[in-house]
UniProtKB/TrEMBL annotation:
<keyword id="KW-0028">Amino-acid biosynthesis</keyword>
<keyword id="KW-0641">Proline biosynthesis</keyword>
<keyword id="KW-0418">Kinase</keyword>
<feature type="binding site">
    <location>
        <position position="140"/>
    </location>
    <ligand>
        <name>substrate</name>
    </ligand>
</feature>
<dbReference type="InterPro" id="IPR036393">
    <property type="entry name" value="AceGlu_kinase-like_sf"/>
</dbReference>
<feature type="binding site">
    <location>
        <position position="13"/>
    </location>
    <ligand>
        <name>ATP</name>
    </ligand>
</feature>
<feature type="binding site">
    <location>
        <begin position="218"/>
        <end position="224"/>
    </location>
    <ligand>
        <name>ATP</name>
    </ligand>
</feature>
<comment type="pathway">
    <text>Amino-acid biosynthesis; L-proline biosynthesis; L-glutamate 5-semialdehyde from L-glutamate: step 1/2.</text>
</comment>
<dbReference type="InterPro" id="IPR001057">
    <property type="entry name" value="Glu/AcGlu_kinase"/>
</dbReference>
<dbReference type="InterPro" id="IPR001048">
    <property type="entry name" value="Asp/Glu/Uridylate_kinase"/>
</dbReference>
<feature type="binding site">
    <location>
        <position position="53"/>
    </location>
    <ligand>
        <name>substrate</name>
    </ligand>
</feature>
<comment type="similarity">
    <text>Belongs to the glutamate 5-kinase family.</text>
</comment>
<dbReference type="GO" id="GO:0055129">
    <property type="term" value="P:L-proline biosynthetic process"/>
</dbReference>
<keyword id="KW-0963">Cytoplasm</keyword>
<keyword id="KW-0808">Transferase</keyword>
<feature type="domain" description="Aspartate/glutamate/uridylate kinase">
    <location>
        <begin position="8"/>
        <end position="242"/>
    </location>
</feature>
<dbReference type="InterPro" id="IPR011529">
    <property type="entry name" value="Glu_5kinase"/>
</dbReference>
C-alpha cells in the first residue's frame, strides 16, 4: 500500500550501527552515500536536518579502543574525540556540493526551558534559510543517561524526535541496521514479524522492543519506540528503516511501503 508522505522539512537520524563497521572501522562509504543523498534532497528544495550518532564509535577507533569504555567519563572522553572527526568527515563530503554544515550539540534543556527552546528553534530557522545542513548530536560531555541531571538525554533517538518537534518537521526518518520494528528482536527470534504500520505505542509494543544490536549502538529498539511515541503524541510521522543503503530515503519519500511507518492516521498492521 502506498503511503501519503509529506516530506518538505525532514529530520534524518542515523545510528552508530550504520556508520561503523562491525570491526570498529569507520564506514566511509555509508557516510559518503548518506551525504550524497542529503545533498540531492537539498537540491530538490527540501529542508534537511541530520541527527548523527557515531561520536563514541569514531572516537574509539581514533584512540585505538576495541571496546566501548565502561565508565561514563571514558565514554564522554571518546565522544569528545570522535565528534570533531565525525563533523570533519561530513564537512568534506558536503563541500563537494558547496553545501555547508553546522554542528549543533543539544541537551534536554531544549524542551525544558521555553527560552532555550526558542533559541534553538531560531538557530535552526536561520540555518535552514541559509541552506546549511544542521548536524545534531547530543552534547555528550554534559548529557549522560546515568546522571540524574536536568540536562540528561541519553540517546539520539529521542533527541531526533525532539528536534522534529522543535522545527515542526513533516517527517522523521530513523535509519538503523534493521529493516524496521519487529514483534520481537529478529536477531534472536526467527519468527519475528515486521510491523509495517504502528499507530499507537503502548506497553505491549514496548515489551517487544529489545536492546541494542551491536556494542556500538546505544538505546536499541526501546529508545526508538520512545521516540516514536513522542512523534505520535505530537501528531507527526516517523519511518524506521534500514540505513545500509541511504538511497532508501528516496523510496521512503515516494511513499513506498518500506520499514515501519509510525502514524496515528491509520491502524497498526503487521506484514504477511
Ligand atoms: N523488536 C525489535 N525489532 C527490531 N530490532 C530490535 C528489536 N528489539 C531489539 N532490536 C535490536 O535493536 C537494534 C537497533 O538498535 P541500535 O543497536 O541501538 O541501533 P542504532 O545504532 O541504529 O541506534 C537492532 O539491530 C536489533 O538487534
Ligand atoms: N551521542 C552518542 C550516541 C548516542 C546514541 O543514541 O547512539 P545510537 O543508538 O547509535 O543512535 C554518540 O554520538 O556516540
Amino acid at each position: 500500500m502506498e503511503r501519503n508522505i509529506k516530506g518538505n522539512r525532514i529530520v534524518i537520524k542515523i545510528g552508530t550501527s550504520s556508520l561503523i563497521n562491525p570491526d570498529g572501522s569507520l564506514n566511509r562509504d555509508s557516510i559518503q552515500k548518506l551525504s550524497d543523498v542529503l545533498c540531492e534532497l537539498k537540491m530538490q528544495g527540501k529542508e534537511v536536518v541530520l541527527v548523527s550518532s557515531g561520536a563514541i564509535g569514531v572516537g574509539m577507533g581514533r584512540v585505538g579502543l576495541k571496546d566501548r569504555p565502561t565508565t561514563i567519563s571514558g565514554q564522554q572522553a571518546v565522544a569528545a574525540v570522535g565528534q570533531g572527526e565525525l563533523i570533519g568527515i561530513y564537512e568534506r563530503f558536503f563541500a563537494k556540493y558547496q553545501i555547508s554544515v553546522a554542528q549543533l550539540l543539544l541537551t534536554r534543556d531544549v524542551l525544558l526551558f521555553p527560552q532555550s527552546k526558542k533559541n534553538v528553534s531560531n538557530a535552526f530557522q536561520e540555518l535552514l534559510q541559509m541552506n546549511v545542513i544542521p548536524i545534531v548530536n547530543e552534547n555528550d560531555t554534559v548529557s549522560v543517561d546515568e546522571l540524574d541531571h536536568e540536562t540528561k538525554f541519553g540517546d539520539n533517538d529521542q533527541l531526533s524526535a525532539i528536534v522534529a518537534k522543535v522545527i515542526d518537521a513533516d517527517l522523521l526518518i530513523m535509519l538503523s541496521d534493521i529493516d524496521g520494528f519487529y514483534s520481537a528482536n529478529p536477531n534472536e527470534d526467527e519468527n519475528a514479524k515486521l510491523f509495517s504500520k504502528v499507530s499507537r505505542v503502548d506497553h505491549s509494543l514496548i515489551n517487544a522492543a529489545g536492546g541494542k544490536g551491536t556494542k556500538f549502538g546505544t538505546g536499541g529498539m526501546v529508545t526508538k519506540l520512545k521516540a516514536a511515541k513522542r512523534i505520535l503524541d505530537n501528531n507527526q510521522q516517523m519511518i524506521l528503516a534500514n540505513g545500509s543503503d541511504p538511497d532508501i530515503i528516496f523510496d521512503i519519500l515516494k511513499g513506498q511501503d518500506i520499514g515501519t511507518w509510525f502514524t496515528n492516521t491509520e491502524s497498526t498492521e503487521m506484514e504477511g
